[in-house]
Amino acid sequence: MKRNMTESIKANLTYSVDTGVKPVNETMEQGNLARQYTGVFKEHAVTVHNGRPLRNQFVLDEHGFRFVDHPTRVRDFHDPDELKSVYYPEMEQLIKDTSGASRVVVFDHTIRAGDKNEREKRQLREPVHRVHNDYTEWSGPQRVRDILPDEAGNLLKYRFAVIQTWRSIRNQIEADPLAICEASTLSAKDLILTERRYPDRVGETYQVAYNSNHRWYYFPMMARNEVLVFKVYDSQTSGGARFTAHTSFTDPTSPPNAKPRESIEIRTLAFFDP
After folding, report:
1. Which residues in the chain land under pLDDT 70?
2. Which of 82, 93, 166, 233 could disulfide-link 228, Cβ–Cβ 3.0 to 4.6 Å?
3. CB distance 241 to 184 below 8 Å
4. Contact 94, 70 (CB under 8 A)
5. What count of other Cβ atoms lies within 10 Å of the Cβ of residue 259?
6. What gap in Å lies between CA 3 and CA 251, rounded to an integer?
């Protein structure tokens, strides 16, 4: 199937509505794939630009994301040992190369599948069709304390970021692609503090309210050898991208027989020299 090289498409993205009540997003115990949400959501029709023709113009610290060619040596993304021994080091090096960080620590990953049977068979998560950013002013630093408790006191004195990567693990992405919002078009007033509950801890994320200034991109028909790198927290406050909203969405140009999406996202802590 040929790539969709349309300059832009119109698509519905699901935003949150700020009601003044803090939403809750809860993940159940292991083996229970259901998630519970509170809050009010509303779809908005937006223009999503094809980022492929502009790919060399995107800068991580300015736009909040970069799109790169990146072959992997991983054969089976469902093998946790291979992920940790092969893929984690690959992503650590990629993020060093794209961000300039001197140290990168992968702290978790999530595999998502669009096919319900595949999700149930492998205990995978579904694509998230809500505009969000994974970390907040509080939960970004808190993740350093959680993952590196003995070093956190010193590490938090200097700049660090939470940087994620996103990749197809099987076919080209024909359904439920990822849309990403240019960081400079995201306003602080758009960010809705959300409680993120896990079985073993409580964190925070941002849901995002609609703003007509948001500028959205996607990279149609992403292949297994391509990676989207994006920043969801940066402790540096003096200009530049700090939060990068994103969401899966229903692509109106997807073929009727589109293969269900299978993707992996990696989350990392990236530390910079003083």
Report:
1. 1-5, 28-34
2. 166
3. yes
4. yes
5. 16
6. 13
